[in-house]
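Thread: T5A complex, take 2
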Amino acid sequence: MTRGRFITLEGGEGAGKSVQRDRLVAALRAVGIGVVATREPGGSPSAEVVRDVLLAHGLAWQPLSEALLHAAARAQHLVETIRPALADGHWVVSDRFNDSTRAYQGAGQGVPAETLDQLDRMVVGDSQPDLTLILDVPAEVGLARAQGRGQGSDRYEAMDLSFHERLRASYRAIAKAEPERCVLIDATGDLEAVATAVRAAVQTRLGVAL
Ligand code: T5A
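Output below.
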């Protein structure tokens, strides 16, 4: 059995990750590829419980505690969902993964990069994404979209603009540092324009005709 491919979608609040994940999954399925659509935090039964702990109680977690909770959820997500799906030959498309911890807990909240790198080596190890699509929009555009949608992670949406600008800068720095894994997608266009750019990146990087 050929191992499947692992794609992650990343970006700040309201960048359009969920919408684009669903469109990409539909495009892959339309050409006969078996796909597991997933998300973080969450994506497996126990990781969804950790998601609830993180997001549903209005708690102000300490940055390191939050990084550890995301790491615990990710460890479960990998064991329960991602690795078995890839081993079965399915592709996995995840709305957020480990770059979210680098951006939010690292650049956003000040957890040292070495600490997060150490956690990543322990939790993710060799199971790094084959391709990461970073949806890039100015912070105020993403926030306006997220607020327009009227649900989601209010805690981060309520942070000041400089927090969201740090997230964007962090994602752009990740894309620059790891060009073989990452593609920066201009996500300021309409849904269809961004979906086209996403499909083009997958086609070019992973050699599938979409
Ligand atoms: N988190 C997560 C961490 O701090 N550390 C971690 O390690 C991880 C994994 C998760 C929160 O957890 C944090 C980050 C998050 O704050 P969540 O509820 O899952 O929270 O929400 P998010 O992942 O943040 O989702 P967002 O709220 O940012 O939204 P998306 O998925 O980027 O955007 P989407 O697709 O829902 O679109 C938002 C709205 O914009 C419209 C959509 O229709 C929708 O209404 N839209 C567009 N409108 C115009 N043009 C476009 N191109 C559009 N694209 C989307």
